[in-house]
User: Which sequence fits this backbone?
């Protein structure tokens, strides 16, 4: 059994508005909102790197968990926008945290990486010890490459989120976690060497809508839970229209669903971790609560997790 | 009711623009449905025609036009 012992996130200061994008693509800000529900996105500064974002989120996470880097057992960095092919973001995070001698590696599954990282840490942290899962993305830098496509340029933002997975069951016990992949339509979401990000939006939305709904429904059924017994849903903030559809299909009341994608856009692997970090900071995670996390990404891959807030042991408010 | 008519009836429930008379016309390019409408439309087709669209068949190209939808549903045994 393992637990989520802390969260952290970091968002760069730069803001990309709908007005700016609307002027570039000759559309209206209202059209952008109608397509994705996003109002603003955060953007890295020219001198910032994906490693800078990851380091800031990782440091915030360790602080939240009350843990020093020398106690870490492993580091898993999740990103679809690494600064180079190898060594990965994990190596830079390990160096900057000064946590040598432990496994540190990257997962490249775009938006689902964070959940796959937690699933892996959940299985391995008994052996490794406390495992830092940090997800960071500089999507706007990738999407700055020509040809720019409005359907993707309006969706994504930059940011980083992190969590610490520890042996034990407190403060947030991981009760269940399921992840899966099906490569039948893997080409629909990809980034080739030397090329920009490519997404067949229609295929991705069809599969994300079906697989996220199914993953959540199966997770709840397996754990004998109804939707109304879940206090909070933390979805990958892919597109607010997709989330609205999911809520409707699963009969999730809007107050059960944490939304911050309107402010930050789709931050890919970091999005649900940023949401979790913000939800905790806002005091939304209280003992006894059941929380469902669900995400979808490259592969195509998807997954869902059930966690339960067990105790108030963290120094920062659990 | 003919298959085409039943498809048009289902399509009318999600359509944002007039359904083209040309069976080959793209429902996306003519603004009849967008990506999110397609999700609802496929679910509606499954219910209406009592077929299951397996994940391997879940691709927009199969639902691009009235002709393609009819061909796909026929291949799944719908009538």
Assistant:
């Amino acid at each position: 059994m393992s637990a989520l012992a802390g969260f952290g996130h970091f968002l760069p200061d730069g803001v990309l508005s709908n007005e700016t994008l609307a002027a570039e693509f000759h559309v209206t800000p209202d059209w952008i909102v109608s397509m994705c529900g996003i109002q603003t996105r955060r953007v890295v500064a020219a001198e910032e790197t994906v490693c800078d974002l990851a380091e800031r989120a990782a440091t915030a996470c360790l602080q939240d968990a009350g843990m020093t880097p020398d106690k870490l057992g492993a580091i898993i960095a999740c990103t679809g926008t690494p600064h180079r092919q190898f060594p990965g973001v994990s190596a830079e995070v390990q160096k900057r945290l000064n946590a040598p001698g432990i496994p540190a590696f990257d997962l490249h599954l775009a938006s689902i990486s964070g959940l796959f990282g937690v699933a892996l840490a959940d299985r391995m942290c008994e052996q490794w010890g406390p495992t830092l899962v940090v997800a960071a993305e500089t999507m706007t830098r990738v999407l700055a490459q020509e040809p720019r496509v409005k359907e993707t340029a309006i969706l994504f933002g930059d940011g980083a989120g992190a969590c610490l997975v520890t042996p034990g069951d407190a403060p947030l016990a991981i009760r269940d976690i399921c992840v899966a992949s099906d490569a039948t339509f893997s080409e629909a979401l990809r980034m080739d060497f030397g090329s920009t990000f490519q997404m067949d939006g229609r295929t991705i939305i069809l599969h994300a809508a079906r697989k996220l709904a199914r993953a959540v429904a199966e997770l709840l059924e397996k754990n004998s839970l109804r939707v109304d017994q879940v206090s909070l849903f933390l979805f990958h903030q892919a597109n607010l229209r997709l989330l609205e559809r999911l809520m409707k299909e699963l009969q999730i009341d809007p107050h059960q669903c944490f939304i911050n994608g309107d402010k930050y856009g789709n931050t890919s692997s970091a999005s649900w971790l940023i949401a979790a970090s913000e939800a905790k900071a806002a005091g939304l995670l209280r003992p006894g609560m059941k929380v469902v996390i669900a995400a979808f990404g490259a592969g195509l891959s998807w997954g869902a997790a059930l966690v339960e807030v067990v105790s108030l042991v963290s120094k920062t408010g659990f | 009711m003919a298959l085409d008519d039943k498809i048009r009836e289902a399509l009318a429930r999600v359509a944002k623009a007039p359904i083209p008379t040309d069976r080959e016309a793209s429902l996306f390019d003519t603004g009849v449905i967008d990506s999110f409408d397609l999700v609802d439309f496929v679910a509606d087709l499954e219910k209406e025609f009592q077929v299951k669209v397996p994940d391997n068949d879940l691709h927009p190209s199969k639902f691009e036009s009235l002709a393609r939808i009819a061909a796909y549903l026929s291949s799944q045994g719908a009538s």
